[in-house]
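ugh ok fine here u go
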Amino acid sequence: MLDSRPLLLATDFPPVRRGTLDILQLSLGYLCNLSCVHCHVNAGPGRKELMTLETIECVLAYVDKHQIKLIDLTGGAPEMNPHFRYLVRAARQRGVEVIDRCNLTILLEPGYEDLAQFLAEQQVVVTASLPCYEEENVEKQRGKGVYNSSIVALQQLNQLGYGRNNELQLNLVYNPVGASLPPPQSSLQADYKRELKTRFDIDFNQLFTITNMPISRFGSVLLSHGEFNNYMDLLKRNFSQANLTTVMCRNLISVDWQGYVYDCDFNQMLDLPLYDGSGSKSHLSELLDRDLVANEIAVGDHCFGCTAGGGSSCSGALND
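structure:
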């Protein structure tokens, strides 16, 4: 696989410093039941990396010490980590909000038939990937049969109250199919709500538009198709200074499956550790007594992906 990392490290992206730390984004591992083209972590069914119970206990200690308000669970399919339910229960017992970044199809896999019910019981926020409301576009990114499975899973979540009950939040995530910026989030959300309701009687709360990052699997695709430089030019031409104040890395840190810490999930995939001037990795256990407020954040050319156009974060557009 072609590697875009060497092309991203030298950058003129402006400096960014962290504000108050509210969110821990945890990669519970790279094991997944899908292998999506746009996946920036190269997740798939053959991956073996999974966060251990020991590391999860360290996460909970950090949550207690720093009064973290929200845990954002990613993968792979985070639900495939054998300690997923333990972590969710422990976080919810502490009053911490939990987001599950769900690919929807996992809810229909053998052995996960009661997963949707568990998420509802724990009032977990489900943020689900649905790259388009059109079947052709979804399957182009995620594989044959994924669209229909996703629709069935969304209907199952609706039946439990997700997207229809104020206590059960269901959000959808849109990624462009190729090397383009997402359209305006508000207008696309209206399209999603209309089409999904009309066709399948599906309801959801919000749509998040996320720019495809020129790293890992998507970066490799860009390079192999000769589109990498053009895509980077697109991101840089659309840079918006206003988005710097709300980029997600200002109130979030990303923790990999081994417990090492990064300024964001994308930096994690590029092996750019939490910035401390040394270039070495810091483990979460080493940060229990450290205050990260005002720390400089490690940046690269990929950061233009978060600040182009309406901006992009794990909670969608920054300025729409």
